[in-house]
Amino acid sequence: xxxxxxxxxxxxxxxxxxxxxxxxxxxxxxxxxxxxxxxxxxxxxxxxxxxxxxxxxxxxxxxxxxxxxxxxxxxxxxxxxxxxxxxxxxxxxxxxxxxxxxxxxxxxxxxxxxxxxxxxxxxxxxxxxxxxxxxxxxxxxxxxxxxxxxxxxxxxxxxxxxxxxxxxxxxxxxxxxxxxxxxxxxxxxxxxxxxxxxxxxxxxxxxxxxxxxxxxxxxxxxxxxxxxxxxxxxxxxxxxxxxxxxxxxxxxxxxxxxxxxxxxxxxxxxxxxxxxxxxxxxxxxxxxxxxxxxxxxxxxxxx
Amino acid sequence: xxxxxxxxxxxxxxxxxxxxxxxxxxxxxxxxxxxxxxxxxxxxxxxxxxxxxxxxxxxxxxxxxxxxxxxxxxxxxxxxxxxxxxxxxxxxxxxxxxxxxxxxxxxxxxxxxxxxxxxxxxxxxxxxxxxxxxxxxxxxxxxxxxxxxxxxxxxxxxxxxxxxxxxxxxxxxxxxxxxxxxxxxxxxxxxxxxxxxxxxxxxxxxxxxxxxxxxxxxxxxxxxxxxxxxxxxxxxxxxxxxxxxxxxxxxxxxxxxxxxxxxxxxxxxxxxxxxxxxxxxxxxxxxxxxxxxxxxxxxxxxxxxxxxxxxxxxxxxxxxxxxxxxxxx
Lengths: 303, 329
Known about the structure:
The complex is a heterodimer of chains A (303) and B (329). Chain A is mostly helical and 303 residues long. Chain A is built from 15 helices and no strands. By secondary structure, chain B is mostly helical. Chain B has a single domain (93-326), classed as MetI-like (MetI-like fold, Orthogonal Bundle). Chain B contains 14 helices and no strands. Chain B has helices spanning 8-23, 39-74, 91-98, 100-131, 136-150, 153-163, 170-177, 192-218, 221-229, 234-245, 247-262, 266-271, 283-293, 297-322. Chain B is globular. Chains A and B meet through helix 2, helix 5, helix 6, helix 7 and helix 8 of A and helix 1, helix 2, helix 4, helix 5 and helix 6 of B.
């Protein structure tokens, strides 16, 4: 190695050969083309959303609207309870984020830092559950929610009412403490030394206080990443809300938007405007917290 | 229950969990030795641990463990929310074999999987290889490549519904520039599923690309340099150094793609409602229709268990084929 190192050094600092320059140009061409494929549809969506109906079906691929209008956005909010959809989505995504951060870090901490018999078993069952495809539990989860005792007009035996169906709880309860959140936070707590809590423990501090005051502040980055990812997942989820929510005032923005997609007669202007509005929150978060999101994804492969 | 709502995020984070199983040595051993906590503190810890875990465990039981058992039991009944429940033995499973729609759904799902998994893998890996260099430009393009992942499947579907519009959509207009008369895509039973595959790859590859980028950084540059000094060309370097170096990640990504592909629903539901001519009815779509449309929840549960079985079989095959043991670390 010692003899080859200077040689490699020399190779690296040589001015670019013709071959290298062609390679560089080819690289730029390739990445720019791929970016066009990934970004263009979004730009076209934005552009379509600002065009009047006649121009949408006439102005072939003009990216800049000739007579820009916000009529499509107005239509979205006046012809459907879109503001209500947005509110529902915000409430549900924020509730999901809060519960997952709380229970995820509490559970993750217990599995990472507390000694108790049965820890391995609990961990094993959580882990094994990740292998079960969501579709298997879909119908029974619906049944559990519908026949939940004393909920939504149900009696003690779960009869008589609709349980938690068509309520916020139908989304919040099943997703409140995802196994994923527990594992994610466990990973972060494990990287902290056990000694941190010992002094406080000897002084007689309770376990919850040790968790909140000593360990929790150390995993702030983990909480940020998990929070962003949970919010996005909650905001974007579709199949489950589609199943358990069914009146217009309860729908989430995704389920509401889905009803805009129709047959040949679809009104593309409002559909594109709705798409932009529904994507705005996650796009804004992505713009500001991109570093955390990329970290969250790569965290997975580095561990 | 987190597995229920199928979202990209879960897909992104799963590898860490799976990798942990084999990864970490038992780090507790040392603590059990000399400075093991005194008895009173140990008891207090044990109680606290169960209190901390109580709500996650209860929810986990209510929306995962118990539902799996319920689903299995229901698959032997004609449960339909309304009316009396009758036990059918294995009739649901027998009917399944004779149900032509089940086979159509299975065939469509297999077709989707067959196209989506290889395509998703190749696109994610090649874009990752393209961006595997530390420059400012590479970071910017990483962001641009990742953007489709941020949007929901509904937003993605609306965008593509417009892109794929036969007369005014961007894709057919652009094909027209080259004198190609594009197909009716979502309204053509030959093309609908292909359009859905392309859309899904577009929407999802960014996340897997990021995971691959992480894995590529883990392959020692010394190995690449050694290969190049030995006269390996770019392809040989990829095949003999990179490929074994990222085998574990490849295995995980194939697994994620497979699990996602077999459970494809959103795109088919949103864009084609299973049509045209049932060409995009997938298994999960069929389960949804049977369970929540026709309220044949017993029958739907039986289909979901068959799907569960199929996913397990393919996971095992993947474990054999991709064989992550070859990874150099």
